[in-house]
Amino acid sequence: MFLSIENVEKSFGKDGRRELVLQDINLRVEEGEFVSLLGPSGCGKSTLLSIVAGLGNPDSGRLQLGGRDIRKPGKERGMVFQEAALFPWLNVEENVMFPLKGSMSRDRMRETARHHLRLVQLSQYGGHHPHELSGGMQQRVSIARALAMDPAVLLMDEPFGALDEQTRMRLQDVLEGIWIETKKTILFVTHSIQEAVRLSDRVIVMGTHPGRILQDIPIRLGRPRNLHAGEMAEYEAHILGLLKTENDKVEEEEMRHAASH
Amino acid sequence: MRLLTKRLVFYVALFAVWELAIRLFGISPVIMPAPTDVFRALGEMIGDGTIARDLGASFMRLAVGLVIALLIGLALGILLAKSKTADDTLGSLILALQSIPSIVWLPLAIMWFGLNEKSVIFIIVLGSAIVMTINVRTGIQNVSPIYIKAARTMGSSGPDLFFRVLLPASVPYFVTGIRLAWAFGWRALMAGELLSTGPGLGYTLKYASDFGRMDMVLAIMIVIGIIGVTVDLLLFQRFEQRVRVKWGLEAAH
Q1: Which sequence ranges are marked TM in the entry (chain B) (predicted)?
Q2: Which of A111, A118, A190, B151 could form a disulfide bond with B165, CB atoms 3.0-4.6 angstroms apart?
Q3: Chain B nearest C-alpha distance from A194 (Å)
């Protein structure tokens, strides 16, 4: 089972003119791979992810998962958003059971939910309601909920973007642990270079105006990654250099835009 | 506790000034009775069961009216939220009707249903159903898009999405709708009873007025006020608050 993205293009209408958000996107994610989409805001990485989720459609191009075309959302693609998006009227366990309804008996559903709550180290909190949990805990429940329906690929859209630094680092550890244990295919969107290098097998660096893939960088380091701090820093420096040129371009464009008004 | 003390002092002072003014200026009880007269009348009406009987009758009417209003409001609200055409046409009519106090329908209601319970219930339904409709519609339309997106990535769509996400996500608005429906219904009930028939609090009030018993009129007004405040503050607002905290719309205090 693998994910392939071929020649995807997407533009949004803006003040009567079209702006190209994604151009010539080609990407292949192998089964069991952890791939990050990294880039400055406006590079279309989140747009690309929601197209893979089936929440948006590309103007042209083709997306396939395991040889089947992607047209609409489906349970084989689990999604974790920046907001945990837990349903407040359900408790934690019921939230994790939400996608399972109709596919198995109630006992099996409960068992599956408990298993995945253990995976994110929240087995004690099944009876709590979302508003009683911290942001980091809510996001872990959201990961458990996406994993509970056993998707072929897990899509994560800046899942730790709204969390404080310490929680963020802790959740990176948790996520890496889950990935090592479950060997899920993960497509992960982030704007943090550190986070991308810390977690991924491959980092896809994206540029803006229009959003496109600049470079596909394999991270050839063992796991868990925190044993390789020195090498990670080298990768980070390399990617930073790449994005610096991009940032200069963005800045230049903004200046030109400001000057023309 | 300080709040309670402040309020207690305020009300004691209010009644004292009132009593004093009546005695000082020798105002006739037909114009304005003293608080002591009012409380005596209240005691009498509680003692002889008038209040209990009237409350029972009034609440029965209100309950029937509210149940009908809430069902209509829920159905219409869902219709308006789901159908753009219905919202553009029927929705505008409902907004327009909202600016007409429901009591002005009484003459028509009496022609249609006669001078009886049904007319009063009709007034209650009109007053309450509209505000419930508007809240249900707003609630469903304002469901956070992130809930819908999340549910869709979990394979939910169509009726499943509607019943498992859109409806429960709108519950805080439904609760507000129910509270406002009660408030509108309670006012409509009093006006309706005052102008039509009994038994009921409003009817007894008119009866007392016909006999110049302003002490009874004021006593009933106090009962109406106390019930309104009790139900609204102690029951509905607390419930609404709890729901809003649980739904993450408000931080716990």
Answers
A1: 9-32, 59-81, 93-114, 120-140, 161-184, 216-236
A2: B151
A3: 27
Average pLDDT over residues A191-200: 91
Q: How far is CA B167 from CA A114, B78, B85, in A?
A: 26, 9, 21
Largest Cα–Cα separation, chain A = 64
Distance from CA of A156 to the nearest CA of B (A): 12
Residue B143 near chain A (CB below 8 Å): no
Count of A-B CB contacts under 8 Å: 60
Residues of B in contact with A54 (CB under 8 A): 152-153
Q: Give the confidence band of B252 by pLDDT, cuts at 50, 70, 90.
A: low
Mean pLDDT of A235-257: 82
**Chain A: closest CA distance from residue B152 (Å):** 6
Q: Side by side, which strands form the sheet with A68-69?
A: A17-29, A3-14, A60-65, A68-69
Is residue B231, in this structure, part of any structural domain at all? yes
H or E element in which residue B15 lies = helix B2-25
CATH of A1-50+59-76+151-229, one of 3.40.50.300, 3.30.420.10, 1.10.10.10, 3.30.230.10: 3.40.50.300
Residue A146: its chain B contacts at CB < 8 A?
Answer: 153-154
**What is the pLDDT at residue A95?**
95
Question: How far is CA A69 from each of CA A35, A121, A188, B152, rounded to the nearest angstrom?
Answer: 20, 35, 21, 17
Tens-digit pLDDT profile for residues B94-116: 999 988 999 999 999 999 998 88
Do A41 and A25 touch, CB atoms closer than 8 A?
no
The alpha carbon dihedral of A166, A170, A176, A182 has a sign of negative
What pLDDT score was predicted for residue A220? 87
Q: Which amino acid, one-letter code, is at B220?
A: I
* Res A92: pLDDT: 96
The enclosing domain of B211 has a CATH number of 1.10.3720.10
Cβ distance of B168 and A87 shorter than 8 Å: yes
| Residue B220 lies inside a defined structural domain of this protein | yes
Model confidence at B176, pLDDT cuts 50, 70, 90, reads very high
A205 DSSP β-pair partners: A38, A215
Per-residue confidence (pLDDT) for residue B57, from 0 to 100 = 93
The pTM of this model reads 0.84
